[in-house]
Amino acid sequence: MALDVTVLTTRAECDEVLDDLAAELDGYQQRTSNLEFADRRTSRSQADAAGQLAGVEAEIAAYSAILASPDITAAMRKQNETKLRRANDRRDNLTDTGSARSATSRFLAAVDAQQVQAQVDVLTDAQTQVTKHQATLPA
C-alpha cells in the first residue's frame, strides 16, 4: 500500500513525522544491534560447548584406556567406570544442548532479522517520501 504523503500539508507536520520516523527507526536499529550481539553470543556459546565436548571426549578416551588395562584393581575399575559413565552423561548433555539450541534458535533469529529489516526498509522509504514532499511545500 502506497503512503499518501499529501495528507501532510505543512513543513511542521513533515518535521513532526520525520522526528517520529527517526525515533522508530532508531529503535529498530537498536534491535538489529541486539540481534547481532545475540548471534555473536550464540557463536561463542557454541564454540565453548565444542571445546567442552572435546575435553569430555578426551576424558572418555582416557577412562576407556584405563578400563582396557588387564592389571586394573577392582576398586580402580569401579572408580573409572563411574567416571566414564559421568563423562558419557556430560557428553550427551553437551550434544543435546548444542543441537537443540542451534537449529531452532538460528532459524527464529533469521526470521526476526528479516522482520526487522523489512520494517527498517519501510521506515526509510517513508522518510524519503516525506522529505521529498516537504521540499514541495511552501516555507
Written description of the protein model:
With 139 residues, this protein is an all-alpha fold. The protein has two helices and no strands. It starts with 10 loop residues before the first helix and ends with a helix.
List the helices and strands and how they pair.
Elements: H1 11-68, H2 74-136
Helix pairs in contact: 1-2
How would you sum up this structure in a few lines?
This protein has 139 residues and is mostly helical.
- H/E element sequence: HH
- Please give the alpha-carbon distance between the first and last residues: 29 Å
Put simply, the count of helices is 2
Task: Give me the count of strands.
Answer: 0
Mean pLDDT: 86
Helix content: over 70%
Content-based structural category: mainly alpha
What profile does the largest beta sheet have?
Answer: none
Strand content: under 5%
* Cα-based radius of gyration, to the nearest Å: 29 Å
Low-confidence runs of at least 5 consecutive residues: none
> Any idea what the shape is?
rod-shaped
Keywords:
0% strand; mainly alpha; 139 residues
